[in-house]
Specification:
This protein is 29% helix and 25% strand. The chain has helices spanning 32-45, 76-85, 118-131, 137-143, 152-167, and strands at residues 4-10, 14-21, 24-29, 56-57, 60-64, 71-74, 173-174, 182-190, 198-206, 209-210. The longest helix has 16 residues, at 152-167. Strand 2 (14-21) and strand 3 (24-29) form a beta hairpin. The model has no long low-confidence stretch (mean pLDDT 85). It folds into two domains: 4-73, no CATH class; 76-175, no CATH class. By secondary structure, it is α+β, with helices and mostly antiparallel strands. Helix 3 (118-131) runs antiparallel to helix 4 (137-143).
């Protein structure tokens, strides 16, 4: 289940965003008065507990720099739980999430037995890449193509991403400033042995933080 995002425009308070996940609610706006107006309206109809400035929301840690006040998002608790669940919490960290020489394909050799947890591992990585760890988007995109019939090489590559997490557990996404939307796109020679087409990578940032 994904959180629901609502947008409210007020002639005085400006734009206010309301993020709802089951019974957890976070309010963010252009002014404190706008957020206070939303909280006042909700508390008038429902019983609620105000925890003031958000520190954590649905497992994601929210922090602000002491000087710049730039908000950062991270998920160290989920990452540590993932490492422990797959027995990778004591392995030597990898410097990269996937080496440039790795070129996975479907060979039909060394398939994993039924009941393997490869799909669960990649699914967890996919969740993290879409929330607080966009730096692993490329290897996760590659690994997700082999979830239906994973082989040992595919699982080995997925565990390589987990080993990368060992050294970057507390890496976070930072946003701040007033930078406009930026985009960087690149592609290489056709190197995918399954579909014979080039690999394309891109990153979009807004206000200094990656959004896609």
């Amino acid at each position: 289940m994904d959180p629901c995002l609502y947008e409210w425009h007020h002639p005085v308070h400006g734009c206010v965003f309301i993020l709802v996940f089951v019974n957890d609610v976070t309010v963010a706006g252009e002014s404190f008065a706008g957020a206070a107006a939303i909280k006042s309206g909700v508390s008038a109809k429902f019983e609620m507990r105000d925890i003031r400035e958000v520190k954590e929301f649905i497992g994601r840690r929210v922090m602000r720099g002491k000087r710049a006040k730039n908000p950062t998002l991270s998920n160290p608790g989920h990452i540590m739980a993932l490492l422990q669940a797959f027995g990778m919490d004591t392995y030597t960290p990898n410097k990269t999430d996937m080496a440039s020489a790795v070129n996975l394909s479907t060979t039909g050799k060394n398939p994993l037995p039924d009941g393997n947890r490869s799909a669960a591992m990649v699914g967890s990585l996919l969740y993290l890449s879409a929330t607080t760890r966009p730096d692993i988007s490329y290897p996760v995109g590659v690994l997700s193509r082999f979830m239906s019939c994973p082989e040992q090489d595919h699982t080995r590559a997925a565990k390589g991403v987990l080993r990368y997490f060992r050294g970057t557990t507390r890496l976070d996404v930072m946003c701040g400033g007033n930078e406009a939307l930026r985009r960087i796109v690149d592609a290489n020679e056709p190197a995918d042995t399954d579909v014979r087409r080039p690999k394309i990578g891109f990153i979009f940032t807004l206000n200094g933080g990656p959004i896609s």
